Amino acid sequence: MIEAPMSWKRGGCHCGTVAFEVLAPDEIEPQECTCSICRMSGYLHLMVEKERFHLLTGEDKLITYIFNTGTAQHQFCSVCGVKCFYVPRSKPDGYSVNVRCLEEGAVHVTRISVFDGKHWEEAVAALQSQDQA
Q1: If you ran DSSP here, which 8-state letter would residue 5 be given?
Q2: What is the Cβ-side half-sphere exposure of residue 23, based on CA atoms within 13 angstroms?
């Protein structure tokens, strides 16, 4: 399997207080999750390993929201309220970056896949059984 070349892309919140960079391919297939918080906020997921993400500014302005199992660490800019990235329940050792918070033109979205986050446990179990097949 050939890996797509990657480069650092910049992103941030609406007011510019929070800025980050992420190492990502130029063409991506992000996920749209149907869980309540992602659906309501219009979040578009790009999952990355911890070492592929760097917070540049705004660490002192982030507010963390935790619910349900307490695993996911939803981080919002305390100035404008935008969630640019967070530590997801499905990848607590990495990050989910909101593709909509990347600089315009930083990536080309080839397709958006849907993840059934409304039924999280069942969806993850189904993915795991596909991986084992």
Answers
A1: P
A2: 10
The Cα–Cα gap between 7 and 22 comes to 8
16: left (phi over 0), alpha (psi -120 to 50) or beta: left
Q: Hey, what domains does the chain have and what are their CATH numbers? A: 8-132 (2.170.150.70)
Q: Which two tokens stand for residue 19?
A: 């800025």
Q: What tens digit of pLDDT does each residue of 81-113 get?
A: 999 999 999 899 999 999 999 999 999 999 998
More confident site: 115 or 9 = 9
CA neighbor of 90 nearest in space, from 59, 113, 105, 69 = 69
Spatial distance between the Cα atoms of 19 and 55, rounded to a whole number of angstroms: 6
